[in-house]
């Protein structure tokens, strides 16, 4: 009787080259999927937070209007202490106390989480600009006396912007690009942008590249 062949019972250590390559490929695919999903989740979260910020600021502006004969803030508003406020300071005055320097305490809701544009040292980020129409800034010429329009003058609140995303190095708290006066794609390099309309809705719309396109789209007070 022939002896039975001896089986090799020694365990094989490690992976073969082919197995290693397969594992690496699988890990790469999974990692790419995770990165894509994580990026989409982050964008969704940022968009949600940004829209919430805009609504809170819009509500504060309307609170101010209700306390001031139903008028939107002026282009420049002088506080009781004689300090010149822009729209963001006016809005935050409804939500917080004044600092020692006479300005309302800064609130992160004026900054969009997707805004990564650097600001000058010492300046606080503001990511939104107001529609010049609602603050009486019609001509593009600096008019400190420009006054906010009455709420009753709004023809179509759902088509008239109140706040627009503006990612610009000069857009800082109570300074810089406070009223949007042209197309805004140049400011954040995106094809789409968030806009808070006067009816309280926040919508993502195409970014215009010209002032005419901006006026036709949202910087107006008409049907």
TrEMBL record:
InterPro entries reported in the protein's UniProt record: N_methyl_site, Pilin-like
**Keywords assigned by UniProt, alphabetized:** Membrane, Transmembrane, Transmembrane helix
Record keywords: Transmembrane included?
Answer: yes
Name the domain of life this protein comes from: Bacteria
Membrane recorded as keyword:
yes
* Ranges that cross the membrane: 20-38
Q: What is this protein called?
A: Type II secretion system protein
């Amino acid at each position: 009787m022939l002896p039975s062949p001896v089986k090799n019972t020694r365990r094989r250590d490690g992976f073969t080259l082919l197995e290693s390559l397969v594992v690496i490929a699988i890990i790469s695919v999974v990692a790419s999927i995770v990165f894509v999903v994580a990026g989409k989740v982050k964008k969704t979260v940022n968009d949600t937070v940004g829209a919430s910020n805009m609504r809170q600021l819009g509500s504060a502006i309307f609170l101010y209007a209700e306390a001031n004969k139903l008028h939107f803030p002026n282009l420049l508003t002088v506080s009781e202490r004689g300090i010149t406020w822009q729209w963001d300071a006016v809005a935050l005055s409804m939500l917080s106390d004044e600092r020692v320097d006479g300005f309302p305490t800064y609130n992160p809701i004026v900054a969009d989480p997707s805004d990564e544009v650097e600001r000058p040292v010492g300046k606080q980020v503001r990511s939104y600009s107001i529609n010049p129409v609602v603050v009486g800034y019609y001509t593009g010429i600096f008019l400190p006396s420009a006054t906010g329009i009455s709420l009753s003058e709004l023809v179509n609140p759902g088509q008239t912007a109140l706040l627009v995303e503006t990612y610009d190095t000069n857009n800082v708290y109570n300074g810089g690009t406070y009223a949007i006066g042209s197309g805004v794609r140049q400011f954040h390099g995106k094809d789409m942008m968030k806009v808070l309309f006067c009816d309280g809705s926040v919508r993502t719309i195409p970014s215009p590249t010209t002032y005419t396109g901006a006026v036709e789209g949202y910087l107006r007070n008409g049907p």
